Amino acid sequence: xxxxxxxxxxxxxxxxxxxxxxxxxxxxxxxxxxxxxxxxxxxxxxxxxxxxxxxxxxxxxxxxxxxxxxxxxxxxxxxxxxxxxxxxxxxxxxxxxxxxxxxxxxxxxxxxxxxxxxxxxxxxxxxxxxxxxxxxxxxxxxxxxxxxxxxxxxxxxxxxxxxxxxxxxxxxxxxxxxxxxxxxxxxxxxxxxxxxxxxxxxxxxxxxxxxxxxxxxxxxxxxxxxxxxxxxxxxxxxxxxxxxxxxxxxxxxxxxxxxxxxxxxxxxxxxxxxxxxxxxxxxxxxxxxxxxxxxxxxxxxxxxxxxxxxxxxxxxxxxxxxxxxxxxxxxxxxxxxxxxxxxxxxxxxxxxxxxxxxxxxxxxxxxxxxxxxxxxxxxxxxxxxxxxxxxxxxxxxxxxxxxxxxxxxxxxxxxxxxxxxxxxxxxxxxxxxxxxxxxxxxxxxxxxxxxxxxxxxxxxxxxxxxxxxxxxxxxxxxxxxxxxxxxxxxxxxxxxxxxxxxxxxxxxxxxxxxxxxxxxxxxxxxxxxxxxxxxxxxxxxxxxxxxxxxxxxxxxxxxxxxxxxxxxxxxxxxxxxxxxxxxxxxxxxxxxxxxxxxxxxxxxxxxxxxxxxxxxxxxxxxxxxxxxxxxxxxxxxxxxxxxxxxxxxxxxxxxxxxxxxxxxxxxxxxxxxxxxxxxxxxxxxxxxxxxxxxxxxxxxxxxxxxxxxxxxxxxxxxxxxxxxxxxxxxxxxxxxxxxxxxxxxxxxxxxx
Amino acid sequence: xxxxxxxxxxxxxxxxxxxxxxxxxxxxxxxxxxxxxxxxxxxxxxxxxxxxxxxxxxxxxxxxxxxxxxxxxxxxxxxxxxxxxxxxxxxxxxxxxxxxxxxxxxxxxxxxxxxxxxxxxxxxxxxxxxxxxxxxxxxxxxxxxxxxxxxxxxxxxxxxxxxxxxxxxxxxxxxxxxxxxxxxxxxxxxxxxxxxxxxxxxxxxxxxxxxxxxxxxxxxxxxxxxxxxxxxxxxxxxxxxxxxxxxxxxxxxxxxxxxxxxxxxxxxxxxxxxxxxxxxxxxxxxxxxxxxxxxxxxxxxxxxxxxxxxxxxxxxxxxxxxxxxxxxxxxxxxxxxxxxxxxxxxxxxxxxxxxxxxxxxxxxxxxxxxxxxxxxxxxxxxxxxxxxxxxxxxxxxxxxxxxxxxxxxxxxxxxxxxxxxxxxxxxxxxxxxxxxxxxxxxxxxxxxxxxxxxxxxxxxxxxxxxxxxxxxxxxxxxxxxxxxxxxxxxxxxxxxxxxxxxxxxxxxxxxxxxxxxxxxxxxxxxxxxxxxxxxxxxxxxxxxxxxxxxxxxxxxxxxxxxxxxxxxxxxxxxxxxxxxxxxxxxxxxxxxxxxxxxxxxxxxxxxxxxxxxxxxxxxxxxxxxxxxxxxxxxxxxxxxxxxxxxxxxxxxxxxxxxxxxxxxxxxxxxxxxxxxxxxxxxxxxxxxxxxxxxxxxxxxxxxxxxxxxxxxxxxxxxxxxxxxxxxxxxxxxxxxxxxxxxxxxxxxxxxx
Lengths: 752, 752
Fold this sequence. Notes:
Two copies of one chain form a homodimer. With 752 residues, chain A is of the alpha/beta class. Chain A contains 31 helices and 13 strands. In chain A, helix 5 (67-95) runs antiparallel to helix 6 (100-106). The longest helix of chain A is centred in the middle third of the chain and has 30 residues, at 330-359.
């Protein structure tokens, strides 16, 4: 019996669920909440040890560290990455509207906690442009320049108290980091690492692209050397752009020159080094070279004084003294802190996972959240702006072969040396050079502007998410962008559960397979049996849609048919009565009959009930309705409005239902909530009133558990025996005449 | 061949999807977006007529109205309902911190547009306590008492400019209604009626209960006749409660007496009338009787002057003159207006659907939204506070047999008579009586406080939604409650797609059914084939969880196995090299080999790629990792931390994978987005590298379409032929030796 093609041969009993469970010994599984909670809080020495090792991964990797094999690589990669970190940190501090030295602090303090707590070996925490600019918006909003301008009578001009403003902004930045850190630590302890995955890729890319554009626009003023008043809040980017365009005639030629030359050099060297990468032992630290050269040119030649160029200025040497965050400001920065906490964590986790997959270790999402939180917390006492993974630094460490957090230590060392000694020499560095460094690094982000074209082909909804996230982020502001983007991508998920999820299916000839007859032509209908499949969770957002879909696909609204039957019976009774009495009496009688109806609806509790059931009134006594509508109508109705109420003159009795069994294929229903259950129960009872059997096929195990827990079987009167293993089982049950056994004989020669 | 139980007998070819589609003539269906949009905007006379009829349902029902049959009922029900509307409207105006006459306006003007536009025949729009109190919070916030207090030197006391304050609040209420109306009309025109269903029942009940409690607390001051400063914002209810308790010693005995007597009478009459409902021709308008009696007692006896009771006061006769809304205030009331628009609409729709189901007609959700919006819009020019369905009035109309909007007209008539003539006589009515009317009506809402106990048994998550909505609404404020409650109930949906959704399944003996072996004992495993089912949409929030689940259930992490194999090969090569060269040379060699690795990771674009793929690095060249972890680990890891990195000394080659085919049963995957697709594609390619076939079974038709559109087959290299109609088809394909045909022979005598 060997054939070319494998065959699908089955001869077994048809099962409904109780039969099946009985025959194959179903065990009941329990997931008691109490036990889980108890387990969670159980104390034991191994558990404590586990917790310590979990929260301080350094205890695991440090003893196993192979000095001979890895230390040299770590040091080389760390030092070369450090030379990238220094200029980048200073540049990003400009984005945050803070003095450049703040970028050095931000690249130094957060690395301590991460050394002990981080689970991604090659990761270097540090400044990240998007986070810097988000922190900057808060600094600008809470300490605007206008708050520190005073009219100086001697100078006859408005003077800005720059020191006071910088101090205030540093304090704000520190408080913001502290709040962000607390949010991250809290989420980490609550094991809420998974919230990060609510950021869909389409959102992240749209958001990052818009952020990149914003960053580009905000460095333009440094590149052109124009004075632009800082804006914050919605449309800030538009105002800034307008001011920059207006200010273009005042471009500082020296600034622009420095920027153009350094970006040209940077681009050329990056292109060359990516072409000749196999000949270079480690990446060329071009950023630091440019910074040094620019400083050397600008400083001794006093270009900044001659051309009034904006320069980095005095960099205070030594460590800053710790300060406490200003808790009273937290009210105003809560939403931004949340956005920072989540975005920072997502960036961190994404890079961490990439590294982990490449090197074959695991990253613990919750521990990463904690580590990041602690990094920010320590930093916040030194007024850093919020950090996450320093993208290009981490990349440099990884590509130069760094394999452990010792590389981070070396990065710290380089930053520390700059802070303690070299920083002072960077005073004459033009800010436009830092601006150019930022702008050049944005190349790839801006390339993502072509994303929508690509996404539109693949998935229209994902494309919408991208566009919405992009527009909201770009025009409103970054925190708004996060809120709107995340909200919209979750809404899209809800949309997807609402539309185009159900279809009537019929049997494909000579198989046990049921498909949509609009798609497959060789189908055979089963007389008296309607089968509808539904492919979406059944819950509050689509329970009513599901009911409407079933009505539409079966062509029968059970509620209306019941009403029509009742109405017909009443009319018949009334006609009998008419023969005895006059018309006036009838009307009085009707008024009297209304009194009876009141019983059902009088008390508010009743209406409350109805309100909860939305439209469950079908089973109650109704006052006679004047018109009955048999037409079933979908929610997205088009232009049927004029004939909404075809008056059916009830001379004839309502027709009997066109089928005796309705099978719902619930394979795609992956969960059900109480509202979904209520709709199922209601449908079951109204079909039962009409004498139609409602069978549920392919009910997923967890949906079954939900139904059990929700009382659908006991209180809801859905018979357990109307659950079937497959649509075909249900069909076999629905047709007592075993026309199926004939299939076995006909089947083989039928096919092909 | 007649048996007691039906049998399931099938002998057919086993199909993968392309075979099946070919054999059964799959037609491709298109849902072109362009066509749909074009259709949407097509102009034609019938379409125009349809639109007119749709948006003005009065054109459909008025010509068919049966005067003889229905008019009398409508008039009687309308008038009796109107007598309920008058005192209730006045009472609810107190909740909105507005003068009582505003409640009459709110019960009058909005009924005009609804008469023409409403689709629910028995519905009477009007004041609704929850909306009134929400509007009240805005009035209090934007026009606080403190803004109108001045120190009057002659009186030596602070005097509140009551008229000015009332005027300001009326203006605010009007602007708020206008904004709400615009939101509703906008949503209605965008066909966004479906957003209402995002309010799950658990949320609505929790919210309504908390609102009921808030209403109760805010009427207590009228009942006790205590002066309590109005609070708004979070915790307002707590402060109010504190002040009321503090003020209890100053209770106005007359107020309390009126309140107690009227509520006692109301409760008794309600009980009696619900018991003797069948003897009453229409509901007793007890509210208006109490109001009249209280007025008659209080007025001529001058009780308000004697006992300093708070009374309704002057009610201006006649129609108010229309005013324009103050658009500049909209900024401050946007969130509340949104909440009002949605909550009002949901209440309206729920009642409308109940009525429609009871009487057998249809309610068009979008048209209801429009009708409600227009009602509020017209009203807003007369400074009403936002209305929706007037619950008890609608109930009264329905129970007295009203069948059309003519009943609403009669309600308007009653309200108009009060406004034009009777209102003046209500001046001495104590406010405490109105407070008592509100409090008594809250009985059923407060009974819902027992909901959580009931819900906890049925569904823990629904219970959480209730509790969160309740607490947020009660302690923060109503608009916050809406935002938090809706957000949380949507988050719960996302949670449900993340946890406990996958399991390994094996074949139940002698059937084509595959189930979890932890649940069913009579199973037979298929050698070399692993089957995992997953029951949840596959999208950004759980794509990574899905991958982890498959790894956990199969016990094999393909990425790590690939790494281990590569590492082993490298080590073998290195050991060969070691025989030729010394140790030091090897280390230098390693450094050199790092340079090659750089190629993969050098450019930022690459890392960007990785970042997007999160952990897709498995297929790229990796620097040698020092330790390899075979243990697969779930995201919710417990205490495995100490042994996170078991050092596998790679002396032995990594074991071959324990299976040759992995079948994913995707029946429960009801949709897939680009991130889900990416994970599938990545899994496919990494399993392919290991020589494992990845089969997808039971892929839903719409998921198939998504995969096609997203390029999973063409760009993603998933073979179309690895899609199977069912798990058993896939298993049959995975086992070329047709051990299946033996089933037919063994089957029958095997089973029982």
